[in-house]
Amino acid sequence: MKIAVVILNWNGKKLLEQFLPSVIKYSKEATIYLADNASSDDSVSFVQANYPSVSIIINKVNGGYAKGYNDALKDLKEPVFCLLNNDVEVTKNWLSPIIETFNKNPKTAIIQPKLLDFKNKDYFEYAGAAGGFIDKYGYPYCRGRLFNSIEKDCGQYNDVSNIFWASGACLFIRNEVYNNLNGLDESFFAHMEEIDLCWRAKNLGYDVKYVGLSEVYHVGGATLSSANPQKTYLNFRNSLYTLTKNAPGKLFLLIFTRLLLDGIAAVKFLFEFKLQHMVAIVRAHFSYYNHLKFLLKQRKSSVNKEKYYKTTSIVLNYYVYKKRVFYHE
Q1: What is the CATH code of the structural domain delimited by 3-218?
Q2: Per-residue confidence (pLDDT) for residue 305, from 0 to 100
Q3: Distance in angstroms (rounded) separating the CA atoms of residues 69 and 8
Q4: Where does the chain hold its CATH 3.90.550.10 domain(s)?
Q5: Closest CA to 101 of 156, 153, 159
Q6: Range list of H helices, 26-142
Q7: pLDDT at 159
Q8: What is the pLDDT of residues 229-251, one digit of tens each?
Q9: What sign does the dihedral 81-83-87-89 (CA atoms) show?
Q10: Exposed/middle/buried for 174, CB within 10 Å: 0-12, 13-18, 19+?
C-alpha cells in the first residue's frame, strides 16, 4: 500500500531542518511531499536544495490547515494520505503497523499512531496522545490526556483500538474517503477540523483507529501556542461548529448547555487575569451565531442518530470528581 506523507508547512524552515530528516530516513514505503502554504521564508528552496527526493506542492495562499491540505491533496493518487505536521519526529518502522491495520480492516478509514511529547519523550503529547474521544457537550479528550493532565507512557496503550477522533498532527486517511467527505471543512481554518472530519467519516459507517505500535514525537504549539488567545478562539468556535454539524438529538438544549459551560470557562479566565482569552470565548460565540444558518444546512446532510460519546461530561468528572486518568463511564 503506497502512502503519501504530506507535510504542511508555513514559514517552518527551522522545523524542517530538525524533523524532515527522520521522515525521509524512516519512510521508504512512502512518497514524501512538502505542501507549502505560501511561506515568506526560504523553506521551499531549503528542501529543494537539500532533499531533492521530496516533492514540492506550492499553495497559492495560506489557507490554514484545512484549505492547505485540501489544496495539496486534490491531485495526489496514493491510496492513503498521511497528514503530518512539520514538528513531528517519526521512528523506525512507524508506517508498517499502519499499513497492516489498513489492510486487515477495510472499514477503517482513519488511523492515528501513538503521539508522544518530543520535549519529554516518556509522556504522551497533548494534541492526540493515544487517540481522541469527545463528551456529550463537545469537549475533546484523549487516552493519555485529560485537559492538562498528561499520562506517562508505560505501555498501557500499546494496542489497536477504536477511537472517536485522530489527531491532525499525524493522521492517516484513505484517499477515497477523504474525497468522499470533500476533505476538511475550510471554514474551521485550524483546530478541531480533524474531529469534524472523523465524525463525518463515522457518520458514513467508517471506523477510526489508534495503532499503538506506531510511535511519533510531536513538539506541539509550534505554529500557535496555547498562550495565544487566537487558539482559544478557534478551539471554542470550532467545537460549536462540530457539534452543530454532527451531534444527534436536541441541538438547542445542547448548545444552551455549552453556552453555560463556556461562560464558566470565561469567568475562570477572568479570575486568572487572562482577559484576552475571556474575550476570545465571547468572540467565538458571536462568530458561531453569525454562521449558524449555514451550519444548520450542513447538519441536515450529516447527522447520524447513533450515540457518539462514552462520557457525559469530562468537565464535571475532571474538575468536580477529580478524575485525572482516562476512563469511560
Answers
A1: 3.90.550.10
A2: 76
A3: 7
A4: 3-218
A5: 159
A6: 43-50, 64-73, 96-104
A7: 97
A8: 999 999 999 999 999 999 998 89
A9: negative
A10: buried
